[in-house]
Amino acid sequence: MGRLSVNLCGIELDNPVIPASGTFGFGYQFVKFYDINCLGTFSFKGTTKEARYGNPLPRIAECEAGMLNSVGLQNPGVDEVISKEIPRMLKCFKKPVMSNVSGFSIDEYVYVCEKLDTVDAIGWHEVNISCPNVHGGGMSFGTDPKMAAEVTKAVKAVTKKPIIMKLSPNAPDIVAVAKACEDAGADGISLINTILGMRINLRNKKPILANTMGGFSGPAIFPIALRMVYQVAKAVNIPVIGMGGVSKADDVIEMMMAGATAVQVGAANVVDPLACKKIIDDLPAALDKYRINDIKDIVGGAFNG
Amino acid sequence: MKEVLFKILENKKIAKDIYEMKLSGDTSDITRPGQFIDLKLDGFYLRRPISVCDLEGDQLTIIYKILGNGTEAMTEYPAGKTVPALSGLGNGYDTALSGSHPLLIGGGVGIPPLYLLARELRKEDKKVSVILGFNVEDEIFYLEEFKKLGCEVAVTTVDGSFGIQGFVTNAIPDEYSFFYTCGPEPMLKAVYKATKTSGQFSFEARMGCGFGACMGCSCKTLTGYKRICVDGPVMMKEEILWED
Ligand SMILES: Cc1cc2nc3c(=O)[nH]c(=O)nc-3n(C[C@H](O)[C@H](O)[C@H](O)COP(=O)(O)OP(=O)(O)OC[C@H]3O[C@@H](n4cnc5c(N)ncnc54)[C@H](O)[C@@H]3O)c2cc1C
Ligand SMILES: Cc1cc2nc3c(=O)[nH]c(=O)nc-3n(C[C@H](O)[C@H](O)[C@H](O)COP(=O)(O)O)c2cc1C
Ligand code: FES
Q: Is ligand 1 within 6 A of the CB of residue B68?
């Protein structure tokens, strides 16, 4: 075990760097750029029960330090993910992968998790609760501690692999949601998903995104994400995966000092396909710079500050 | 596709709001006309996709129009500056489909990718007809360049200040074996309706990654969902599904 290795819910990662769901496809799109086996693991594209096209174009907008997306969970559905995407991924990625599950009802989360739990290549399930609950007036599962706990309990009941609940920053009290997930049996927490944002095209006075609003991510959200990771990691006793704007080795260290056991990188992969490789390559020198022997030692290092 | 550091050899204005930039660098991943590069500009988060207009050894030409802040900033880039880009993106046009008398229809900054295509087709000794569409005379570029390749060129301007008055569809000849087109979407729709043979269309979309990972550019077609960045930007007429 090297100085970069961390343990995530019982599985050893060579390093804490994990490409975030939706920005890394099923991994094979990146093989032209580097050998993705250098990653700790990666979280694959959000998967639902049925195939989804998602939202109309345009789905992408930008600002100086980040991007907005309204992809809308486009994916081929869990059956095709298992029959086509995962076999294709297995040709280029040899480590346990993190699934990423979305749903619009508790039944859907249960259905997808139960199916994915039979796939050997999957090490963890990351359950994205930022989606609207069609039975709950469209309010996102992630905004309400009670609904988040119900999802957690339901998916725990049908799975053997660790369940990591992925929280939405759009919740009024994200710490309460995290604690509710922990109490309901979650093995880990990951945060943050994108922050709801918007841009307007000044030339035609219309919103740029066809969906009007979209998820904002990238360097601009790093301080918000860091704050939330810190608050949640202090409040729970299960591992936390920190994400939101991480773009360089220093950001990884900062997220871990805020309490993250591992770190995900999202938008950075979109603007630079080599982003995660560069971060991993830069980590040893960054540790030296801050006189850190072993990266595990810094997790939650800022708690007593 | 790969990440390449291009060096600017020249960056000059060639028409109203239109610039030609010559770059040098590793062009080995560019294999077909109609492919694009995705430029990383200083101070802008997302890359800017621009078509390959011409290619000669390790030299690459792009033509861009000032549209927003990114393309505006590019006009200030001096010779000697380096620009990182993802190179060799997209599927590109298929010259094998051209038949003996291909028709190329370009509107505005949809014209640049047709230049390399015309060159390739002329190399194969095809009879190439080209329609170049502009709004007004002072936007016209590359007319002489296309003529020099030995293409038969018609120009249309919306205000009639040069060539045929009106839209590119006013200049479509009776005889051609296949067509290739690129331009603003309303033009593409008009070309779709006005053409009688099969053809290839090149589309634009606001992109995230540019290499197939983010689903930011995925559109519906008659043959399923396609990502404009990797499954396109070029699509067959027969698979296009116009929304709205
Ligand atoms: C495959 C492809 C090939 C292209 N080839 C050319 C070319 O050869 N010459 C040329 O002048 N233009 C070309 N374009 C359009 C060019 O990408 C946009 O004009 C440019 O990105 C605008 O950037 P901006 O910062 O000036 O505008 P802004 O409006 O400030 O850009 C904001 C964001 O929207 C995106 N965007 C805005 N308009 C477009 C558009 N029409 N298409 C795609 N993204 C857009 C930008 O990339 C950026 O991410 C091409 C687009 C695509 C998809
Ligand atoms: C294009 C795009 C698609 C995304 N798709 C998903 C998804 O399918 N499931 C999910 O849980 N999160 C998704 N996310 C959110 C990211 O995984 C991540 O939580 C968020 O972007 C914050 O990290 P970042 O600032 O590093 O991008 C997506 C983000 C982007 C930019
Ligand atoms: S822009 Fe990311 S898939 Fe096309």
A: yes
**Which portions of chain B are predicted below pLDDT 70?**
244
Task: Output the CA angle A44-A46-A52, nearest 5 degrees.
Answer: 130
The set of residues, in sequence order, having a beta carbon less than 8 Å from that of A118 and lying 6+ positions away, is: none
Return the half-sphere exposure (C-beta side, CA atoms, 13 A cut-off) of residue B5.
3
Q: Give the residue on B whose Cα is nearest the Cα of A201.
A: B68
| Ligand 2 centre distance from Cα of residue B41 (Å) | 23
A-chain CB neighbours of B218 within 8 Å are 53-54, 57, 59, 71, 74
pTM value is 0.96
CA separation (Å) from A282 to A111, A231, A249, A253, B39?
40, 27, 6, 11, 24
Give CA–CA dist A69/A167, Å, rounded. Answer: 17
ipTM of the complex: 0.94
Structure confidence by residue, pLDDT tens digits, A229-261: 999 999 999 999 999 999 999 999 999 999 999
Domains of chain B: 2-89 (2.40.30.10), 95-239 (3.40.50.80)
C-alpha to C-alpha distance for A146 and A136, rounded to whole angstroms: 12
Reported CATH class of domain A6-298: alpha beta
Active-site residue, A38 included: no
